[in-house]
Design a protein that fits this description.
alpha/beta, eight-stranded mixed beta sheet, 9 helices, globular
Amino acid sequence: METITGTAAGVPFTALPPRGATDGPAALIVTWHMLDAPRTDAAFAAALPMTGLPAWRVHLGMPMCGARMVDGRVDAIVELARKDALMAYLAPFIHQAADEFPAALAALRDQLPVDDEPIGILGGSLGGAVALEVLTTQRAPIKAVALVNPAVRIRSVVPLVGALMAGSGQAYPWTAESRKTADELDFVARAGDVTAQPPLLLVSGELDHPALRTDAAALVDALRERYAHPDEVELTTVPDLAHPLADEPGLEPAPQLPAAKVVDEILTQWFLRQLTAK
């Protein structure tokens, strides 16, 4: 079976079929891509295809990315980031992607031969924040969660976006409203909201931004303190992996980079264990 592209409740997706023959509906893993490269669902599917899994891997497009880009360009996204890195860019992307997920999931179940069991989810960078928002707000039953270089505390991401987009070196103009929003998107502080306690894997690149690596370790520690089975929260560091998983511009499918291949193999083996667990 070939790759399937389409929309689910208005959300673009790239779906990769299960490995080998399946007897009836197969398991489902849903992903959200990065806003760094690879920054579309098709490009993310090429970077992390996880072809060894007997499950559908459905890569959802983030708001204003891929098929939803304005005039097929990233200019509109850049303008939002320059206007207000948190309130016009980061937070709306996370909230929209999480809010539209339940309807998209229902549509995917109608369109694809997937089972009705709890799903796996995967998020990279800002897509990791979406996965954590979906998890902590219980938008769907979750069997397993994987995160790659995730945005665990949005407060750590704001200066990175500001430096990249504005290039002015000026500090972000925090307000009472933006501080409240940043607190709401601090998933270390919200670790107690992960009440279902599904197995969770966090993959952190050794060359990722230091603040994101610090936050990743803090999230793992916070979850392990709360999980009934702390060993189900895993942290894996990948040498030579920076923040992106693909070369720029990261809009179209591209050959898999060596570091991304390592991540892909880690994710494949880990999800395989979760899919076969009782």
